[in-house]
Amino acid sequence: MRGACIGIIKASKSPFLPTGSYATGTVGWTEYAIVHSKALQKIEIPENGRLTDALGVLGMTGLTAYFGILSVGQVKAGDFVVVSGAAGATGSVVGQIAKLKGARVLGIAGSEEKVRWLKEALGFDDALNYKDAEFRRKFKDATKDHIDVFFDNGSAVRKFNKPNAKIPQSAAKSSTSPWPEQKPMLAS
Fold first, then answer.
1. Pairing mode, if any, of strands 22-26 and 4-8?
2. Residue 68: pLDDT above 50?
3. Are 153 and 90 contacting, i.e. CB atoms less than 8 angstroms apart?
4. Which of 11, 41, 134, 186 is most buried when burial is the number of CB atoms within 10 A of its CB?
5. What distance in Å separates the CA atoms of residue 147 and residue 12, rounded to the nearest whole number?
6. Cα(100)–Cα(81) distance, rounded to whole angstroms?
7. CA distance 93 to 56
8. Nearest-angstrom CA–CA distance, 34 and 37
């Protein structure tokens, strides 16, 4: 099965990936693989990091969040940012980056437990449960000043955006919208 993985180099002819080093790549879910060194990236985990972070916050998840909110979303201090799928791997990182940039962040998640986690553990300014019967009203109230950046991990809420709002979409999730009547939007 194709997928990203982390592995230890058991034998190598590459000076960049010596035996005993760790690497990541899309080589499939297998115990052993013979892979050209160009298909791998050496992993260097920072102090207090974990090896598995290379598949999360220091890997594709983190890169998606980082470039999505900073390069595409162009978040800045004072922006109002809404993140769908906010309790997921990418959304949770997006919200934290937006907060570090001085934005006000509203997360959208699928349970009250996730809503609490976003506010209490991650410091989101507010969060809403899209499964709540009053979600549409609560969302409209929470976004009355309109949205500067909507980081879309699975839904498009265009009518609440400011003109020319930026809408980075995480493509892997864009088909799981809790608002199926709205088609995904690729750019502002």
1. antiparallel
2. yes
3. yes
4. 41
5. 51
6. 12
7. 10
8. 9
